[in-house]
Protein backbone atom coordinates (compact mmCIF):
# COMPACT_ATOMS: atom_id res chain seq x y z
CA UNK A 1 0.00 0.00 0.00
CA UNK A 2 1.25 3.28 -0.94
CA UNK A 3 1.20 5.74 1.91
CA UNK A 4 -0.21 9.18 1.56
CA UNK A 5 2.20 11.71 0.34
CA UNK A 6 1.60 14.97 2.07
CA UNK A 7 3.13 18.11 0.79
CA UNK A 8 3.97 20.91 3.14
CA UNK A 9 4.11 24.44 1.94
CA UNK A 10 6.70 26.37 3.88
CA UNK A 11 6.43 30.09 3.69
CA UNK A 12 9.86 31.59 4.08
CA UNK A 13 10.28 35.27 4.39
CA UNK A 14 13.50 36.10 2.61
CA UNK A 15 14.80 39.59 3.02
CA UNK A 16 16.68 40.35 -0.15
CA UNK A 17 19.04 43.29 -0.15
CA UNK A 18 18.48 45.48 -3.14
CA UNK A 19 21.02 44.97 -5.87
CA UNK A 20 23.69 47.64 -5.71
CA UNK A 21 23.30 50.38 -8.22
CA UNK A 22 25.50 49.92 -11.21
CA UNK A 23 28.55 52.07 -11.00
CA UNK A 24 29.96 53.25 -14.28
CA UNK A 25 33.55 52.49 -15.15
CA UNK A 26 35.93 55.20 -13.95
CA UNK A 27 37.14 57.74 -16.46
CA UNK A 28 40.47 56.74 -17.90
CA UNK A 29 43.18 58.98 -19.26
CA UNK A 30 42.86 59.21 -23.01
CA UNK A 31 43.05 61.70 -25.84
CA UNK A 32 40.89 64.74 -25.16
CA UNK A 33 40.47 64.06 -21.44
CA UNK A 34 41.36 66.76 -18.94
CA UNK A 35 43.74 65.23 -16.46
CA UNK A 36 44.78 66.62 -13.08
CA UNK A 37 47.98 65.34 -11.50
CA UNK A 38 50.42 65.93 -8.68
CA UNK A 39 54.02 64.95 -9.26
CA UNK A 40 57.60 65.07 -8.07
CA UNK A 41 60.44 65.35 -10.56
CA UNK A 42 63.95 64.24 -9.65
CA UNK A 43 67.25 64.19 -11.49
CA UNK A 44 70.13 62.22 -10.03
CA UNK A 45 67.98 61.59 -6.97
CA UNK A 46 67.53 65.29 -6.22
CA UNK A 47 64.15 67.02 -6.37
CA UNK A 48 63.95 69.49 -9.25
CA UNK A 49 60.26 70.32 -9.18
CA UNK A 50 57.26 69.31 -7.10
CA UNK A 51 53.50 69.80 -7.09
CA UNK A 52 52.03 68.29 -3.97
CA UNK A 53 48.90 68.80 -1.91
CA UNK A 54 51.12 68.29 1.13
CA UNK A 55 52.76 71.62 0.33
CA UNK A 56 49.50 73.27 -0.59
CA UNK A 57 50.29 73.30 -4.31
CA UNK A 58 47.56 73.42 -6.91
CA UNK A 59 47.63 70.24 -9.00
CA UNK A 60 48.58 70.46 -12.64
CA UNK A 61 45.76 70.15 -15.18
CA UNK A 62 46.34 69.47 -18.86
CA UNK A 63 44.44 68.11 -21.85
CA UNK A 64 45.75 64.70 -22.78
CA UNK A 65 47.09 64.55 -26.32
CA UNK A 66 47.44 68.32 -26.66
CA UNK A 67 51.23 68.22 -26.66
CA UNK A 68 51.60 69.91 -23.28
CA UNK A 69 53.51 67.02 -21.74
CA UNK A 70 56.52 65.06 -22.81
CA UNK A 71 55.23 62.33 -25.16
CA UNK A 72 56.82 59.56 -23.08
CA UNK A 73 55.12 60.87 -19.94
CA UNK A 74 51.77 60.99 -21.73
CA UNK A 75 52.24 57.38 -22.76
CA UNK A 76 52.87 56.45 -19.13
CA UNK A 77 49.64 58.21 -18.14
CA UNK A 78 47.53 56.57 -20.85
CA UNK A 79 44.71 54.48 -19.40
CA UNK A 80 45.25 55.57 -15.80
CA UNK A 81 42.37 56.43 -13.47
CA UNK A 82 42.00 58.87 -10.59
CA UNK A 83 43.78 57.61 -7.49
CA UNK A 84 46.56 55.80 -9.33
CA UNK A 85 50.16 56.46 -8.41
CA UNK A 86 53.14 55.41 -10.47
CA UNK A 87 56.80 56.05 -11.13
CA UNK A 88 58.35 56.51 -14.55
CA UNK A 89 61.94 57.18 -15.58
CA UNK A 90 62.66 58.98 -18.84
CA UNK A 91 66.16 58.86 -20.35
CA UNK A 92 67.35 62.01 -22.17
CA UNK A 93 66.25 60.73 -25.56
CA UNK A 94 62.66 60.48 -24.27
CA UNK A 95 62.83 63.79 -22.40
CA UNK A 96 64.71 66.90 -23.56
CA UNK A 97 67.46 65.24 -25.55
CA UNK A 98 71.21 65.43 -25.16
CA UNK A 99 72.97 68.75 -24.74
CA UNK A 100 73.98 70.34 -28.05
CA UNK A 101 77.12 72.50 -28.03
CA UNK A 102 75.87 74.25 -31.15
CA UNK A 103 73.20 75.88 -29.01
CA UNK A 104 75.80 77.92 -27.13
CA UNK A 105 76.85 81.36 -28.29
CA UNK A 106 78.68 84.48 -27.21
CA UNK A 107 76.78 87.72 -26.77
CA UNK A 108 78.05 91.17 -25.76
CA UNK A 109 78.02 91.76 -22.03
CA UNK A 110 76.11 94.99 -22.75
CA UNK A 111 73.13 92.79 -23.59
CA UNK A 112 72.57 92.39 -19.87
CA UNK A 113 72.96 96.07 -19.05
CA UNK A 114 69.88 96.07 -16.85
CA UNK A 115 71.31 93.45 -14.51
CA UNK A 116 73.62 94.53 -11.68
CA UNK A 117 75.91 91.50 -11.87
CA UNK A 118 75.94 88.67 -14.37
CA UNK A 119 77.01 85.31 -13.02
CA UNK A 120 77.23 81.83 -14.49
CA UNK A 121 74.09 79.85 -13.73
CA UNK A 122 71.66 82.75 -14.11
CA UNK A 123 68.62 82.14 -16.34
CA UNK A 124 66.81 84.55 -18.64
CA UNK A 125 64.06 84.43 -21.24
CA UNK A 126 65.10 85.25 -24.78
CA UNK A 127 62.55 86.25 -27.41
CA UNK A 128 63.17 85.47 -31.05
CA UNK A 129 63.26 88.28 -33.59
CA UNK A 130 59.68 87.60 -34.66
CA UNK A 131 58.54 87.48 -31.00
CA UNK A 132 56.87 84.14 -31.68
CA UNK A 133 59.17 81.98 -29.61
CA UNK A 134 60.46 82.24 -26.05
CA UNK A 135 63.48 80.19 -25.04
CA UNK A 136 65.31 79.69 -21.81
CA UNK A 137 68.82 81.11 -21.85
CA UNK A 138 71.34 80.11 -19.22
CA UNK A 139 74.59 81.99 -18.65
CA UNK A 140 77.45 79.49 -18.61
CA UNK A 141 80.44 81.84 -18.71
CA UNK A 142 81.13 85.53 -18.07
CA UNK A 143 84.28 87.15 -19.49
CA UNK A 144 84.09 90.77 -18.44
CA UNK A 145 87.67 91.46 -19.51
CA UNK A 146 86.81 90.63 -23.12
CA UNK A 147 83.26 91.93 -22.87
CA UNK A 148 81.25 88.82 -23.66
CA UNK A 149 78.92 86.32 -22.03
CA UNK A 150 78.42 82.73 -23.14
CA UNK A 151 74.76 81.72 -23.13
CA UNK A 152 73.27 78.27 -23.61
CA UNK A 153 69.83 77.76 -25.18
CA UNK A 154 69.71 74.05 -24.43
CA UNK A 155 66.75 73.17 -22.22
CA UNK A 156 67.89 73.20 -18.56
CA UNK A 157 67.00 69.51 -18.30
CA UNK A 158 68.73 68.49 -21.54
CA UNK A 159 71.06 65.54 -21.07
CA UNK A 160 69.35 64.48 -17.84
CA UNK A 161 67.37 61.39 -16.90
CA UNK A 162 64.04 62.46 -15.44
CA UNK A 163 62.50 60.50 -12.58
CA UNK A 164 58.80 61.20 -12.08
CA UNK A 165 56.50 60.21 -9.23
CA UNK A 166 52.96 60.87 -10.45
CA UNK A 167 49.60 60.80 -8.70
CA UNK A 168 46.46 61.06 -10.83
CA UNK A 169 44.01 63.36 -9.04
CA UNK A 170 41.14 63.50 -11.54
CA UNK A 171 40.15 62.61 -15.11
CA UNK A 172 37.35 64.67 -16.69
CA UNK A 173 35.66 65.33 -19.99
CA UNK A 174 35.83 69.09 -19.40
CA UNK A 175 38.40 71.28 -17.65
CA UNK A 176 37.91 72.78 -14.23
CA UNK A 177 36.88 76.46 -14.37
CA UNK A 178 40.42 77.57 -13.65
CA UNK A 179 42.11 74.68 -15.41
CA UNK A 180 42.91 76.60 -18.57
CA UNK A 181 45.21 78.84 -16.52
CA UNK A 182 47.14 76.10 -14.79
CA UNK A 183 49.71 75.57 -17.52
CA UNK A 184 52.07 78.41 -18.28
CA UNK A 185 53.42 78.07 -21.84
CA UNK A 186 56.88 79.06 -20.62
CA UNK A 187 57.04 76.38 -17.95
CA UNK A 188 59.14 74.05 -20.03
CA UNK A 189 61.72 76.71 -20.78
CA UNK A 190 61.85 77.55 -17.09
CA UNK A 191 62.62 73.96 -16.12
CA UNK A 192 59.23 72.69 -14.95
CA UNK A 193 60.01 69.42 -16.70
CA UNK A 194 56.49 68.76 -17.89
CA UNK A 195 55.07 71.33 -20.26
CA UNK A 196 56.56 71.37 -23.71
CA UNK A 197 55.10 74.50 -25.24
CA UNK A 198 58.33 76.47 -25.30
CA UNK A 199 60.62 73.48 -25.58
CA UNK A 200 59.02 71.75 -28.55
CA UNK A 201 61.16 73.64 -31.04
CA UNK A 202 63.41 71.09 -32.70
CA UNK A 203 67.15 71.15 -32.32
CA UNK A 204 67.37 72.05 -35.99
CA UNK A 205 65.15 75.11 -35.63
CA UNK A 206 66.96 76.18 -32.52
CA UNK A 207 70.31 75.81 -34.25
CA UNK A 208 69.00 77.99 -37.05
CA UNK A 209 67.87 80.56 -34.48
CA UNK A 210 71.33 80.60 -32.95
CA UNK A 211 72.86 81.03 -36.39
CA UNK A 212 70.48 83.87 -37.28
CA UNK A 213 71.07 85.68 -34.00
CA UNK A 214 74.83 85.33 -34.35
CA UNK A 215 74.68 87.03 -37.73
CA UNK A 216 72.29 89.70 -36.41
CA UNK A 217 74.00 91.84 -33.74
CA UNK A 218 70.69 93.33 -32.62
CA UNK A 219 69.14 89.96 -31.75
CA UNK A 220 70.75 89.57 -28.28
CA UNK A 221 68.93 92.73 -27.20
CA UNK A 222 65.80 90.58 -27.00
CA UNK A 223 67.12 88.82 -23.89
CA UNK A 224 64.98 89.63 -20.88
CA UNK A 225 65.73 88.98 -17.26
CA UNK A 226 63.61 86.29 -15.63
CA UNK A 227 65.45 86.17 -12.36
CA UNK A 228 68.29 84.13 -10.96
CA UNK A 229 68.45 80.44 -11.58
From TrEMBL:
Q: Where is this region: Disordered?
A: 1-27, 202-229
Q: Which GO terms describe its biological process?
A: protein refolding
One matching Pfam family: FKBP_C
Q: What are the PPIase FKBP-type domain coordinates in residue numbering?
A: 32-108
Q: What is its EC number?
A: 5.2.1.8
Q: Where in the cell is it found?
A: Cytoplasm
Q: What class of enzyme is it?
A: isomerase
List all Basic and acidic residues biased stretches.
1-19
- Keyword annotations for this protein? Chaperone, Cytoplasm, Isomerase, Rotamase
Q: Which domain of life is it from?
A: Bacteria
Where is the chain membrane-spanning?
none
Reaction catalyzed: [protein]-peptidylproline (omega=180) = [protein]-peptidylproline (omega=0)
Q: Provide the GO MF annotations for this entry.
A: peptidyl-prolyl cis-trans isomerase activity
An annotated GO cellular component: cytoplasm
Q: Which InterPro entries match?
A: PPIase_dom_sf, PPIase_FKBP_dom, SlpA/SlyD-like_ins_sf
Principal localization reads cytoplasm
What's the stated role of this polypeptide? Also involved in hydrogenase metallocenter assembly, probably by participating in the nickel insertion step. This function in hydrogenase biosynthesis requires chaperone activity and the presence of the metal-binding domain, but not PPIase activity.
Entry protein name: Peptidyl-prolyl cis-trans isomerase
